[in-house]
Amino acid sequence: xxxxxxxxxxxxxxxxxxxxxxxxxxxxxxxxxxxxxxxxxxxxxxxxxxxxxxxxxxxxxxxxxxxxxxxxxxxxxxxxxxxxxxxxxxxxxxxxx
Length: 97
Description:
alpha+beta; three-stranded mixed β-sheet
């Protein structure tokens, strides 16, 4: 059994934290394709780019990511895709707060 000294432990922990942080940024940066209504997941979740529900839009959903002020933003439900902030799908959940 090998032992890990404090320096090695801190190096591994620091590397892991940096990797997790940069990995999350990379996932958001990779979302560049706008979600199509023809996408199988979009169809399964009844995604529409124009919500008919006044208080339920992608822009106020807990799954949307990225900065406010952009018309299309990444969504955790549709990895690698951008959704319209005015859109809606059946996975919509109001953002807390």
